[in-house]
Amino acid sequence: MRLVICAGPATTGKTAVLRNIIRRLLESGNRPAFLKIDVQYAEEDEQIAKEFNIPTKKTYSGELCPDHCGVMVLGDAMLWAKKENCQVLLVETAGLCLRCAPYVDGGLGMVVLEATSGMNLPLKVGPMLSLADIAVVTKIDRVSQAEREVFRARIQDVAPKVRIHEVNALQGIGIDPLVERVLATPPAPERMFLRGTPPVGTCTICVGKKEVGWQAHFGVVRPLDQQTFYRGE
Amino acid sequence: MNIQKMTIFGGRSKSGLPEPVQRLDLNMGDVVSIVGSTGAGKTTLINDIELFADANTPTGRRLLINGEKPPAEYRDNPACNPIALITQHTTFLSDLPVGEFLTIHANIRSKDKSQIEDLVTRTLAFANQLTGEPVQPLIRMTELSGGQTRALLIADATIICNTPIVLLDEVENAGINRNRAIELLRQYRKIFIFVTHDPRIALLSDYRIVVKDGSISDVFHTDEIERKCGERVSVLDDALTNLRNQLRRGERLSQAELESITCA
Ligand SMILES: Nc1nc2c(ncn2[C@@H]2O[C@H](COP(=O)(O)OP(=O)(O)OP(=O)(O)O)[C@@H](O)[C@H]2O)c(=O)[nH]1
Ligand SMILES: [Mg+2]
Ligand SMILES: [Zn+2]
User: Fold this and answer.
1) pTM of structure
2) Cα angle at A6 between A5 and A11, to 5 degrees?
3) Where does the pLDDT of residue B215 fall: very low under 50, low under 70, confident under 90, or very high at 90 and above?
4) Does A11 touch chain B (CB under 8 A)?
């Protein structure tokens, strides 16, 4: 089973890109399964099942970080996709947490960013971008050539090794190279590990100490002027 | 790669018939229009070009660059893509001042840092020849009018991006001096392809590609007669623009004025 994990901020075009990929995978005789991980609402599973007649599922992470929720459920998901006779598992996950990334060693990590989100966005998304294998830039039809190029350069500044693919997901432009990347991904190993190091997941605030001021806390403390912060890697 | 020529090999029409024009060569320096009614397949043709179609799109068209299959990096590495695209939806989103914005872009494009200032100056000068409303380096990108934005999009793609092929997909012409624009574009050795409904641009082009039923049905070179017609069309078009502006300014129109326009 090949594993593709697709992350990205809300409404960047993750589903639109995956739809194009699914269509081409089916045309080339590869059956994908689709899993959506979201915090509290998603309907992609129903839409994609209806459109392509492939196995789909969704799961809500609720209070868990969706990326960490992925770690919990991915083992089960691989077994499910296998039982459904699929060759590829496509996971779409909400990129809400800018401190961690959902990618797994041995799977293809794909971040979807929209060219319309401003030239500085690549500087803001953290490990979701820097730990990805490929960065898909959508909505290139909407922005000037200049902003497209600056956006691309900023990605490369933050993540020099990430391969950038520009797409117009509405017209299906730029999708073929993505499909080739999916098909070139080797089957995922039996035991899988989250790529990079997850950030500190709990702090004293999480466990209910609500007093304001770092002096009232212990463990990871953070005064205002301390500019070094944990990057997840 | 030094691009000299792009060749389009015909595929099939929407109804499955072989494309009437089976081979079309576009050479560096050509200014080309694509014309056809809505839904005829103009954007599909543009998409085929953008995709470097290799019989792998619904039309079955194939594209060659310099007579050969385009290198894979055109498709796989956006930095090597020789095409700049401006569509009717394309716009600037940045709110930086124009000068600062162009400087950022020029810095990314140009290896020679001593060229940056010159590139920015030339881009602004180019834009200012396309539009009557001056584009100043200190105005914010978001404050540009529609005409100024289009002028700057074209100037930036031509001078800073400097890609050998520029596609303009139904970019609205309001606020752009078209005769001047085409005259200026001719000074750059590139292939400019306009998808257009504007008779003026069509007649100012070297030739126009006619699209029908998803196929290229004809290629018309603008001959001497049409060139002359083009001049008349420009006069009529200007007259109509003046008339429009007159009404906009809240003025009345007289019978005599209308006569003088239609007899021009
Ligand atoms: N113009 C343009 N629109 C696009 C492109 N890709 C996606 N869209 C549009 O962007 C909107 C959001 O796309 P989705 O695919 O739902 O985005 P998503 O990332 O899956 O969104 P969530 O799962 O809700 O976070 C839709 O209206 C798409 O049609 C593109 O390349 N160009
Ligand atoms: Mg989605
Ligand atoms: Zn997290």
Assistant:
1) 0.84
2) 160
3) very high
4) no
Encode pLDDT of B58-102 as tens digits. Answer: 899 999 999 999 998 888 888 888 999 998 888 899 989 999 999
Q: Are residues A160 and A216 in the same domain?
A: no
Output the pLDDT for position A233. Answer: 34
Other CB atoms within a 10 A radius of the CB of residue B174 amount to 9
Question: Chain B within 8 Å of A170 (Cβ-Cβ)?
Answer: no
CATH at A13: 3.40.50.300
| pLDDT recorded at residue A137 | 96
Write the residue in B78, B86, B92 that is nearest to A166 by C-beta: B78
CA max distance for chain A: 60
User: Is A211 in the same domain as A140?
Assistant: no
Task: Please check whether residues A128 and A220 belong to one and the same domain.
Answer: no
Strands (E), B45-157: 62-65, 83-87
Flag whether A194 is in a domain: no
Q: Across residues B142-165, what is the average pLDDT? A: 92
Q: What does pLDDT average to in each consecutive run of 10 residues of chain A (233 residues)?
A: 94 96 96 92 93 94 76 89 96 81 92 93 91 95 90 93 93 92 94 79 65 72 57 36
Smallest CA–CA distance, residue A8 to chain B, in Å, is 20
> What is the CB-side half-sphere exposure of residue B156 using CA atoms within 13 A?
32
**A46-60, A206-220, B117-131, B149-163: the lowest-pLDDT one:** A206-220
User: Which residues, 6 or more positions from A77, have their beta carbon under 8 angstroms from its beta carbon?
Assistant: A33, A35, A57, A89, A91
- Residue where the block lists tokens 């003046």: B242
Nearest to A103 by CA among A37, A174, A167: A37
| Distance to chain B for A67, nearest Cα, Å | 29
In terms of residue numbers, what domain contains A225? Answer: 200-233
Give nearest CA residue, ligand 1 atom 32.
A139
- Beta pairing class for B215-221 and B207-212: antiparallel
Please tell me whether residues A50 and A149 are part of one structural domain: yes
Antiparallel, parallel or unpaired: β A163-166 and A108-114 = unpaired
Look at residue A54 and tell me if it is in a domain: yes
Report whether A111 contacts A146 (CB < 8 A). Answer: no
Whether residue A193 lies inside any domain: the answer is: no
In this prediction, residue A229 carries a pLDDT of: 44
Alpha-carbon separation of residue A135 from A99, B73, B114 (angstroms): 17, 16, 32
**Cα B152 from Cα B91, distance rounded (Å):** 10
